[in-house]
């Protein structure tokens, strides 16, 4: 047993009781916070909202983390998986004083306690869950599944940090959580901190038993050992006994962690540690009402939310609530002014060591500017547009390699992806760092590295969770993903965007590095993998979210990709989505042009069209995305040769939110700007990378919208050739020429013949590929001579 | 060791070699299928697409499943998790003849073999992955993670079925797969069939080692035992030895399964079986080229796709390919006409027992019409609209209970959800059946039932996978989910919609029951859980997908919900999304009216507006969703009292795809229909349940679109009151009245005063709730007297 004196034990218990009191008070009380007079119905909130069930367990964990932090001088962070137990984390933050530092009006006295209680789950107050508003948190407690991957993300490259992570038995059933256990095969005991999972089995979810809570203990232990952990059990409902067991388990766990780290850091031990894990079995709703209206509550699913629901109406409930609250003996926990007495605070750490005050949970405090190299070192040389080809992501890979090299000491940049870094052509990074891996290796393996900063696991959820945790604790990163399968993390990105939306408004939260997606292996080049791999809808998904957070870029070539990448890697508090190809792509813009174009976000490519500037164009060919850009440029060239005199304008859009009205998105254009690009009344044929109706949804308020015709992916896909994909979805250059002819009035019979010629090319190509299985080069290429412009620019 | 004679063993090996040959042939050959002459470059496809790595292992599994099916007379289905190994499953189907039955032109002879080879990953041919086109499959092999939940879904209520499930070591890293292991706590050995997981560890994913393949065997065994399985190991690269071990493992597994089922079914054994599982360790790309260009390929990540990539250009590669193909000795496996020789087919089962011919993989063959009771038994009585309130989902729960009762014997209907059935107010079903549960129970548990057909696990992924597997094998079901968190399965529903889109076009695939979502606990009533629980974007997500598959319904009250539910439960091959509230909701329509309204999908509610029919209305108030409908009706009432003479039309939309043009969706309206409802030129204020721009995206082509103003959820949320949620997003009745006044010309100063009155009410209410924490009843109610209509209808 640990070396706790009776006084020390009593102080732990006093802190825990104080936190329980403050948590229950938040759920119930509008007034009379110290119960200085008998409880009256009007002291109780008219609407009772909150989750009591998990709260006493969270308070126990917090109390005991305080002890080990203080005793060992630890730097620690806690991820509260059962974050719907918001009252617990708020209570602890108030007790340690970090809450008052963030919110000075919530003072650590009776008046502040009353405000703490009232604001909880109350209009104009704070959410019932752990949220950005909660000091010390990097983890919203609403949607479940991400606690452990967030914890590992926080621990990576933080060698002196302990990240405790409470995992509820409900959350443990989710897929993302189940996958993230294997994160321990990626944790480097030398350069990373430690993660201490605390599996809290209180037996029930909302209305059902939890699976892990109902396994025989031997089976559960096999599972946890098979997941690479050595479980330590804390079980009980008698507080003092549980305090002793918990203190012992914490000490054992931290001793083992320290020993593993010491061995790896001093003697270079290579064996993967079997990291400790605490299994905490305490009753749901522990210390709350045992029975209500004759049925059991504590220890059952009925304790999940509000154990006593009829307090304002039912005098027996009111009395039971008062008895419950008084059972914590608030009169000995708080002084007459409502301040916690010294013994309650005996184990509370000081300053930044407090869980509610750690800078790791307010990562912007620790964030350093990322050393992105000058783009000139990586930009491709461009002579005539379209006369050379590069793989955009491969060039980006070289830039990322340089970022990796220049952060070798700092270790604050990571690249994550589901086993696709090389497939996405970013393999140049392996010249600078390897792939994190702590499991067994074989001679045939390549690029595995115990200290690597490329993170690959075939779980988009784990990748996303790692990166979120890494960013939220003040570091930088990039997630590269097949475009179709990023939908796997739709719901996670929702939550991260919501987090950023709120945290941006909190003065005490400092900006963090943006969450950057590189979506490649995109819809137009999944001809080989087929229909299941074709989905460009993530852009639609994120554009439904808060415009102050979301940015979407579709760079059409290599240099524009570099320019966009530089921008997003320096940006803060955004979710940036970049869609870019990995296949050889024509180079259209040199670096200077690319920078100007990306800064504008959308612009006219004079050299690609046939305007002479003397009048409005007859038609606007607009494009967004690499493949649509190529098709639009080719269409412009076909029109130049075949419909002479037609004034074609080519507009390229990199930053898709530019299409939105200026009132609706910070990047949105004014109507004057929009009209200047797209005209007010000329036909606009827009070739877009994704679902065509997105463009309508963005541009419906514009004058040109009446004449806007959008081509894009309309869910026609299979295993075929790349060009057959664009033909199947009517995005190809020949179809675009036909669209122009169909929409520009007065082109006459000559144009009708051109239209027929285009239709014939499409038919012939279709027959060709059915026969030969590959695209016909002359149908799919582009040459400078084929461009639209009457005369070259510059 | 099993009782295999040398002849029997040789036949297994011959079948496996034949399948390997046919698989490699699909990846490589355009012609010369039997290698009847030396291989020439032009015999080889110009574009080599396919995944060889996993293929020999899948062929091994298929070969050995054949044996046990034939020997034991089993009814079996196999879910091929590594479905990118499409060539394997196609090869086996061709060998057993089921392929030719589905596709008569792919005959089981040399000509058919040539077509089988050519069509693979070729334009106009078949995808490289297992797909709907693949006989015997219920599982697309593109996105990974869902194999095991699909397998369990297939096994539920199929007591005589064995569902084998191959899980790749890559897929095993995904969250959905990791969660689905616990499905064994929900499998009833009495009424359900068996699932035999075969964990195929070939060591590598695309470019990385797989985590499970790199655990020490003892650690892996702990993990698998902790997941409730008893592992059986098959390891090797020497074919005959592996055949013997695999046969032994299969026999052991099936003997144990039979014993468990017998014990449960005859003597009522209650202990949860530790179901067998096979761990199959064979090299990636086994039997393919060992080394290519001097580097190791077989047994490494380089074997993932095409081991020899330069066959047409490099004579050494061509020679190596020919040697590889000839190593299977095709001349002894196929006769001169290219037919498999009898010994190759010795272990192939007959008729429906063949894995490619099982009706369970073409569930429509087994599907029976669902006995949905007459709605009259559950419909609520409605006198004057809005004079009573019901919880729509609670009433639906009673109907579902009756469906449960009437399928008690048939057992072909299940309800799935992530621990939310009661929270979503469907708890009436517990009167008819319990919640499936095979783990430990306690006295405080409720409604748990070893034989129950309500499926609850806190994993949306597992719920979705179970239901998909259940539906694809010919049964019925409903998934009830919190609206916000259904995004967790965005990517899964993508894949299911893609599956249905393709399978609908295959004449041999019979229609299956639709996948039905009931999304409740929706955005407007997550005021208590806060911002993290507020997301109405799933509708946007699915409406990007194939219109022939997707249907979205927003019933505004209880009887419309019943009518929609009846429709979707009888429908086939759709994904139906129903968004409906669980909170008390005004009853607007009686059952007859509800049926007519739902059949039309959208209609004018004369009784709610102030038109007299003599002229076009001055304004259209449109609504979709329960909360918007209530607000629109209240706004119409406010306008009646305050702006007399204003002709207001109220239009309610249940079936949101009605707004699309008829050419774009089977439910879309013609312009004439649309104009008849919404007018061509009057202001339309549309109160929509979700993101407002969705309505613009659906209606941008309509004449009325110029005058369309949409209110909806614009990502403004927190923990507050229900009415504050609508006010915060400008969807409330007072704001709608202001919108009308702002948009209808010529209403004069009186209307300006009304506008100010409305603004004042909003401000006062805001102050009230900040003070009191609850909504002011008179601000949020609705009364019949307050309706818009000048005179009551009917």
From TrEMBL, chains A, B:
Cofactor field: thiamine diphosphate
Enzyme Commission no: 4.1.2.-
Zinc-finger listed as a keyword: no
Domain Xylulose 5-phosphate/Fructose 6-phosphate phosphoketolase C-terminal stretches: 582-784
InterPro entries assigned: Phosphoketolase, THDP-binding, Transketo_C/PFOR_II, Xul5P/Fru6P_PKetolase, Xul5P/Fru6P_PKetolase_C, Xul5P/Fru6P_PKetolase_CS, Xul5P/Fru6P_PKetolase_N, Xul5P/Fru6P_PKetolase_ThDP_BS
Gene3D superfamilies hit by this protein: 3.40.50.920, 3.40.50.970
Entry keyword set: Lyase, Thiamine pyrophosphate
EC primary class: lyase
A Pfam family annotated for this UniProt entry: XFP
Segments forming domain Xylulose 5-phosphate/Fructose 6-phosphate phosphoketolase N-terminal: 4-365
NCBIfam families on file: PRK05261.1-2 (NF003617), PRK05261.1-4 (NF003619), PRK05261.1-6 (NF003621)
Family listed: Belongs to the XFP family.
Name of this protein: Probable phosphoketolase
Organism: Streptomyces orinoci
